[in-house]
Specification:
alpha/beta
Length: 271
């Protein structure tokens, strides 16, 4: 009996030691686990603070303050800048460089493409390459713009300043990105020649009219310049740059059908 009691006491001591050892082991594991969580938490806080510092640095040091815009005619500088620098942080040069790296902006009406270059952290340059538009026709209450080859490149509800309306052409349909279906396609070369000459002499015509007999009339506000055929066209348009300022405020037709370097026959008929 005494032997059994001694054995129970011995077992009890052993169990107590085991429990104490388990308790110490649990405490060490608990402390080790909390230490790991503390390290992870400290690293997360450090990372978060680092991101905040990086964010503030990027915002403070990569804000665009100067923008150069080149090649735009249809759109103003402000409109081009708004298209390029749209969205959140659109004025950040670092994000713009990443957004437009090796990538042009396409899909803008009247524009072939736009390239964006970051010159320095505060300066960018936008190069606009507009479609070569020779004129436009009116069709189904829309303005159909075409290039030098007569290809319809754009359809719009708005008129573009500096692009002439072309009338007198006969066609029964218009398809975007296809040539205007006119009988004589050489007329587009004539239109291009006229627009180039008008620009050469710093003039701006509102409308170009082609008569059935091959005659040509240019409209400058209330003044119509009847040029006849395209013979001596360069000389006629060159003469216009000197005559139109004298006719400002008047309304009528400038007769230049028979004008040449030899005859210089010109008259003005008031309406």
């Amino acid at each position: 009996m005494a032997k059994k009691q001694r054995k129970k006491k011995a077992n009890k001591k052993i169990n107590t030691k085991v429990v104490k050892k388990k308790e110490k082991s649990s405490i060490r594991e608990y402390m080790r686990g909390h230490k790991s969580l503390f390290i992870i938490g400290a690293m997360a806080v450090a990372l978060f603070l680092g991101l905040i510092c990086a964010y503030r640095y990027v915002i403070a040091n990569y804000t665009v303050t100067t923008v150069y815009v080149e090649g735009n005619v249809h759109y103003t500088n402000e409109e081009i800048i708004e298209m390029v620098m749209e969205g959140y942080y659109g004025n950040n040069s670092l994000l713009l460089s990443m957004k437009y790296k090796d990538k042009s902006i396409v899909g803008v009406p009247f524009v072939e493409k736009m390239d964006v270059s970051v010159l320095d952290p505060h300066t960018i340059k936008i190069e606009v390459y507009e479609k070569a538009i020779a004129g436009y026709v009116e069709y189904l209450e829309r303005y159909m713009y075409f290039d030098k080859d007569g290809i319809v490149v754009e359809s719009s509800l708005e008129k573009t300043e500096g692009v002439p309306l072309v009338t007198g052409l006969n066609f029964d349909h218009v398809v975007l990105y296809e040539p205007l279906p006119v009988e004589d396609e050489s007329i587009f070369r004539s239109i291009l020649s006229i627009t180039q000459l008008v620009n050469k002499y710093n003039l701006s015509t509102d409308r170009i009219y082609f008569g059935n007999d091959g005659t040509l009339t240019l409209y400058f506000g209330d003044v119509r310049a009847a040029l006849g055929t395209d013979v001596n066209l360069d000389e006629k348009i060159m003469k216009l740059q000197y005559m139109l300022p004298e006719l400002q405020g008047k309304k009528g037709t400038l007769r230049m059908e028979n004008y040449s370097e030899d005859t210089k026959n010109i008259s003005f008929e008031l309406d």
